[in-house]
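quick q for whoever's on today - can somebody do inverse folding on this one?? i tried earlier but teh output was garbage lol. tokens:
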């Protein structure tokens, strides 16, 4: 707990330090940029938005999502366990019990917002009470109470304002550098570059800060309700989000509250597919989440996420349970790691090799840049792609396997595909309602995952396949062959899908190979032609030097460079 508070403090400190550094540099190098006005306006606007945001959120949730606030007696009558928890925490921390809003939506989600502890709201959906038992409901509400107690809506607003200030400094410095001169112009350009770099770094620091606040809220929940209940709630919420049929209103609610919800809806889509198969087998579900908790790629995958990966959160809750001598969560990742004899050094060696494959095209492009021949830069990158394609799409024959076997491998890779063959059927599109969606959800006897179709004709081929070729395979028994990869969730890049309706083939590497080959040949041609031109110029200048700077030419050869009569 103390470590997470320290991480939040350090993150905010880094953002604040970057802001101060850029502002000081700007004040040194700029003389006519009114940074004070821009920064003051940013703070004022964010402050006003923060002040009115709870009432704006109330209005929009009532209008678009039919949210209704429940009075205290109604909460007590319908959800006594939740009512008791809310008032217990409010009394302990000396603030008014938050209002409870209920949205009539089967997707299980919950979030909180407000100005201060005393006027916070907790919003839940009907799905929370449909998919979770009472202990799990209390654990989710305790998580939201943790956000209120830790004042996370204030912390994130302040940190976001600091990052916005960085962009204001960038914009002002760029505007000033265009009209500057001499030393000031160079200094202003430097400030602009530094500010925009720190702005993007600041965005990722915001994501990190958000993830630390989620961990803190998880820890708060485990303090007031046993951590195992939140662990199982996270899995069931992911399952419920996948289980409930999508509508436009449902998608709007999940996407608009993605950064606020108890779980990231993007992550839920994948972990929900795992959960739908593994709710009755916590051991297998735990093994499937070992990738999240231990594979080095998981740290990079979650960089763009406001929430930690589900496996990491459940691993964290397991650690809290051990420290507090609470009953272990059903999803015990430590025990799962022992069962599969997890080899962490081997995971790091594999990560290093795969990272090398991933960056090889960029490395060759950088090396080509040192030659000084610019056409060799895209040639180097294209050559790297062509070299790594056979590694990323191995040509070895696909062996028969199952979804459970693929998902419980903690060494699965987001870079190198594992040839695999599943027996089952495509049960629906991965993006329900999109009539040209080419990706499908594939189910075998052990679970579900996404089958990612990539046409040899690129985006246009994907749309045509989704419109005309994919529908006839839906609901038909058959086999799926392709390359399994693991990212935020598991998926198979389709090579071939056979069913009673026929065969759907794809060549996912063809487009990359074809484009890379064209770029390579075109770049090499440009380089050869360019070097030939340089050689001719050098030869011509050499001839001039040998003739003492006087060389006769005819008008037909170099009409603009006719030498004097000898």
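ok took a stab at it. sequence:
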């Amino acid at each position: 707990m103390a470590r997470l508070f320290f991480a939040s403090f350090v993150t905010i400190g880094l953002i604040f330090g970057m802001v101060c550094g850029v502002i000081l540099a700007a004040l040194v190098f700029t003389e006519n940029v009114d940074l004070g006005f821009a920064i003051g306006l940013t703070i004022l606007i964010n402050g006003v938005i923060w002040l009115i945001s709870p009432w704006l959120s109330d209005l929009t949730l009532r209008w678009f999502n039919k949210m209704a606030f429940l009075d205290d007696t109604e909460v007590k009558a319908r959800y006594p366990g939740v009512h008791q928890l809310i008032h217990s925490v409010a009394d302990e921390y000396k603030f008014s019990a938050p209002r409870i809003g209920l949205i009539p939506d089967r997707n299980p989600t919950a979030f909180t917002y407000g100005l201060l502890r005393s006027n916070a709201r907790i919003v839940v959906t009907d799905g929370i009470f449909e998919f979770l038992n009472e202990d799990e409901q209390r654990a989710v509400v305790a998580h939201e109470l943790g956000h209120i107690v830790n004042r996370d809506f204030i912390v994130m607003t302040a940190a976001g304002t600091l990052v916005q200030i960085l962009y204001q400094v960038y914009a002002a410095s760029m505007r000033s550098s265009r009209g500057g001169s001499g030393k000031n112009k160079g200094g202003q350009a430097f400030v602009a570059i530094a500010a925009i770099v720190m702005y993007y770094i600041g965005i990722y620091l915001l994501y990190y800060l958000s993830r630390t606040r989620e961990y803190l809220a998880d820890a708060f929940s485990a303090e007031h309700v046993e951590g195992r209940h939140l662990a199982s709630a996270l899995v069931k919420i992911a399952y419920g989000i996948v289980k409930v049929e999508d509508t436009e209103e449902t998608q709007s609610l999940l996407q608009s509250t993605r950064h606020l919800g108890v779980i990231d809806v993007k992550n839920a889509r994948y972990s929900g597919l795992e959960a739908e198969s593994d709710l009755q087998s916590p051991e297998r579900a735990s093994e499937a989440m070992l990738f999240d908790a231990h594979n080095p790629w998981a740290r990079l995958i979650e960089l763009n996420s406001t929430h930690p990966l589900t496996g990491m959160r459940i691993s964290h809750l397991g650690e809290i349970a051990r420290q507090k001598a609470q009953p272990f969560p059903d999803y015990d990742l430590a025990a799962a790691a022992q069962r599969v004899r997890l080899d962490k050094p081997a995971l790091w060696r594999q990560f290093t090799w795969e990272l090398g494959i991933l960056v090889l095209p960029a490395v060759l492009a950088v090396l080509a840049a040192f030659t000084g021949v610019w056409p060799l830069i895209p040639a180097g990158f294209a050559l790297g792609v062509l070299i790594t394609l056979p590694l990323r799409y191995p040509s070895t024959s696909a062996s028969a396997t199952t979804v459970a076997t693929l998902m419980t491998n903690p060494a699965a890779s987001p870079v190198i595909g594992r040839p695999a063959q599943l027996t089952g059927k495509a049960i629906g599109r991965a993006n329900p309602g999109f009539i040209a969606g080419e990706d499908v959800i594939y189910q075998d006897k052990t679970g579900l995952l996404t089958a990612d179709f990539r046409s040899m004709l690129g985006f246009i081929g994907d749309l045509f396949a989704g419109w005309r070729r994919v529908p006839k395979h839906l609901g038909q028994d058959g086999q799926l062959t392709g390359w399994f990869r693991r990212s935020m969730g598991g998926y198979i890049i389709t090579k071939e899908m056979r069913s009673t309706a026929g065969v759907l083939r794809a060549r996912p590497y063809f487009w990359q190979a074809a484009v890379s080959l064209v770029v390579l040949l075109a770049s090499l041609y440009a380089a050869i032609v360019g070097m030939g031109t340089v050689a001719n110029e050098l030869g011509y200048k050499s001839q001039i030097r040998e003739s003492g700077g006087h060389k006769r030419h005819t008008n037909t050869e170099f009409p603009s460079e006719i030498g004097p009569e000898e």
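fwiw The longest strand covers residues 418-429. also The CA atoms of residues 391 and 477 lie 31 Å apart. so keep that in mind when u check it
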